[in-house]
Amino acid sequence: MTMDDAPPRWLTWARQLQAIAQTGLAFSRDVYDRERYEAIRALAAQIMTEHSDADLRHVEGLFAGQAGYATPKVDVRAAVFRDDGRILLVRETADGGRWTLPGGWADVNQSPRESVVREVREEAGVEVSVRKLAAVYDRERHPHRPPYPFHIYKLFFVCDLIGGDPRPGVETSEAAFFAARDVPADLSLSRVLPQQISRMFEHAAAPDLPTDFD
């Protein structure tokens, strides 16, 4: 990651303050300490909205909805390949119909493998088997945009198609397979980057490549 790719300091500070407040509220029982942590959480929300287009009430709600010890969130992404080497992409309705690898938040009580299989089924209507964990990326070390209020780890899995025909789901408007040279330019950059898709093609072509950690 270059200095230009590094998250802005205000975002790092806001996340750190939110994490301190969340963890403090999880363990403190003193009424005055809790008031201080709530004030820190409110300050984090103000910093976040002062430097972005986010709505203050929305960010306050996001932060207030977090409980327990603060840890990074986990996003799972599936690089699903057909026998002809094409990769599955879906149009994300929440991001203006831009294309992305199917995926989303990992669910409680599901393993990472179960979560990514579920996401593919819900967003593309097909069944897959997981071949390998191709990458574990820290979202902050990659030029995703726009910035997100929370720290995120992104898990990329190479998967094989085992059944079904692509069809959109509740959160998607289209699902289709693409050759490497035909990957659309209008990607949902909050979710996936062109170089990450290219890397998944490399992992699919060379199964013995070790998992990427970055």
Topology:
Blueprint: H1 9-27, H2 31-50, H3 56-64, E1 73-81, E2 87-92, E3 98-100, E4 103-105, H4 112-124, E5 127-138, E6 152-163, E7 172-178, H5 194-205, E8 212-213
Fold and architecture overview:
Strand 2 (87-92) and strand 3 (98-100) form a beta hairpin. The longest helix has 20 residues, at 31-50. This protein has 214 residues and is an alpha/beta fold. Helix 1 (9-27) runs antiparallel to helix 2 (31-50) and helix 2 packs across helix 3 (56-64). The strands form 2 sheets. Strands 4-1-6-5-8 form a 5-stranded mixed sheet. The protein is 34% helix and 25% strand. The radius of gyration is 19 Å and the shape is elongated. It has helices spanning 9-27, 31-50, 56-64, 112-124, 194-205, and strands at residues 73-81, 87-92, 98-100, 103-105, 127-138, 152-163, 172-178, 212-213.
List keywords for this structure.
214 residues, alpha/beta, 5-stranded mixed sheet, 8 strands
Derived structural class: alpha/beta
Overall form = elongated
For the record, give the distance between the C-alpha atoms at the N and C termini, rounded to a whole number.
9 Å
Report the order of strands and helices.
Answer: HHHEEEEHEEEHE
β-strand percent reads 25-35%
Question: Summed up, what is this model?
Answer:
The protein is α/β, with parallel strands linked by helices and 214 residues long. The protein has 5 helices and 8 strands; from the N terminus they run αααββββαβββαβ.
